[in-house]
Amino acid sequence: xxxxxxxxxxxxxxxxxxxxxxxxxxxxxxxxxxxxxxxxxxxxxxxxxxxxxxxxxxxxxxxxxxxxxxxxxxxxxxxxxxxxxxxxxxxxxxxxxxxxxxxxxxxxxxxxxxxxxxxxxxxxxxxxxxxxxxxxxxxxxxxxxxxxxxxxxxxxxxxxxxxxxxxxxxxxxxxxxxxxxxxxxxxxxxxxxxxxxxxxxxxxxxxxxxxxxxxxxxxxxxxxxxxxxxxxxxxxxxxxxxxxxxxxxxxxxxxxxxxxxxxxxxxxxxxxxxxxxxxxxxxxxxxxxxxxxxxxx
Length: 297
Prior knowledge:
Ferritin, globular, 3 domains
């Protein structure tokens, strides 16, 4: 039963994250004067979501659509189809999501009630907070599962307090984290909670020294490729936390400009792909006045 709940939670989370990005994108496009069919085309452009590390969610898998059909007698099949569509459009999720709602034989009224219950959990808003909410809900259900199953269930769940104590003692904040009894991945998650360090590492991998190291360890003649193991051998020194936080604050505006530039480039590329075929086919024509003005400039 745990997989039933966690599968719905993940589907709700990716759908809410998709809707949050869609709403923000609509505001950006309308601010740029883009409306009508062109606006709808860009809102359904997969690249606009994956560029922001948001899973693309096809229409049939979006939570409002599923909730509207929660009372249907075939809701279990609809859920299986929705998860299949998400896996189809996001290959890195293939085989990782539960897709056996119909096989479990859960009564449709109970499954519909569960969908309505999960609908009350909000994952919209700031991405970090949404992920934290998902993690806490996931952890809550794992804890309840462990309590219900007793000692055997405890094999799959280590209380958060114990995990935090282990992380504070081991300090696994750089290099590779190996957790042979990974379970829910609590140690890995807590080990990664140093966002300022990620910005520091981004600067290091962009440095001339790292690029030179990658070039020296790359193999091949026509298209040289660096080996991940060789690149991982590049020595990295992390400053103290206070300096990392200061560095994060200093470079944050620059990173925002870079992200904005990437978004603008993708937006103009989508506009080009939308208009160019129409211009070539003659469906759209440029006014003679505009042609003359372009020639003058």
